[in-house]
Structure to design on (279 residues):
């Protein structure tokens, strides 16, 4: 396999700075070591974000995904949280792990839910959330939901999001009693895969302890217009047995954040209006 080390370093540099070039220079040797250690047949490099490099491969246990990152702590956290969620059967199995690298079960067909021509029904998504939240110990979470919301608000504020209403609703939500579960924490539909007979599967957790409604918001807000968002909100809350008013408030907390990310201008405008309480 030919690696474009320059392109890899350029992709990772915004996250890790210039020092990442030294890490990328060691990548071919590190891959050779892992291929030998885990008896892998390395295949294609897969698309990934700005924090890791990912490869399809095949090993003694079948098809797998090899993920490496300069951020060893993040890899360790991902491994720990995937093992917490493992009893749900809604995350990839961790096949092996060492510092800075993890070998994961490959999910087939592995289609991103955001790319599916027909999205999962509210009932199907509710089953996915219920299974996920029944697993894991909230006390094992590396952060609280309140900490994660602060990070999201800071990032969205830098992108120009109007968060006055979101801040008020957030404070109301945190002031009231609620169940606490181990949350995935970053359950946008690019982090949910179609697993065939396995059902929906979550990847790349940003795990935190908090209100189970929080993991439901992205499914609601992926609706492209207000009618679809409200339909998803009501049907998902009913199917998952969660408080529709709390779900609505969490959607309004996060909608202005989502409005700064989506590329569809119409969807962005609908999210901003939802956050402002216009419907």
């Amino acid at each position: 396999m030919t690696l474009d080390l320059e392109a890899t370093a350029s992709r990772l540099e915004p996250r890790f700075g210039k020092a990442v070039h030294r890490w990328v220079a060691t990548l071919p040797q590190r891959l050779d070591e892992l291929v030998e250690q885990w008896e892998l047949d390395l295949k294609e490099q897969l698309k990934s974000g700005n924090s890791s490099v990912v490869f399809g491969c095949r090993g003694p246990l079948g098809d797998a995904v090899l993920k490496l990152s300069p951020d060893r702590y993040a890899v360790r956290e991902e491994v720990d949280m995937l093992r917490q969620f493992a009893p749900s059967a809604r995350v990839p199995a961790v096949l092996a792990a060492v510092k800075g690298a993890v070998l994961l079960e490959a999910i087939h067909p592995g289609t991103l839910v955001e790319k599916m021509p027909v999205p999962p029904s509210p009932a199907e998504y509710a089953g996915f959330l219920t299974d996920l939240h029944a697993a894991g110990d909230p006390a094992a979470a590396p952060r609280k939901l309140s900490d994660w919301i602060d990070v999201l608000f800071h990032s969205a504020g830098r992108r120009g999001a109007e968060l006055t209403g979101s801040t008020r609703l957030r404070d109301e939500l945190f002031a009231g009693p609620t169940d606490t579960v181990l949350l995935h924490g970053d359950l946008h539909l690019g982090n949910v895969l179609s697993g065939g007979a396995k059902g929906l599967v979550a990847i790349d957790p940003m795990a935190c302890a908090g209100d189970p409604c929080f993991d439901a918001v992205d499914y609601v807000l992926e609706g492209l217009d207000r009618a679809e968002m409200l339909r998803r909100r009501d049907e998902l809350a009913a199917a998952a047995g969660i408080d529709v008013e709390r779900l609505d408030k969490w959607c309004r907390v996060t909608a202005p954040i989502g409005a700064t990310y989506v590329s569809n201008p119409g969807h962005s405008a609908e999210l901003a209006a939802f956050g402002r309480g216009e419907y």
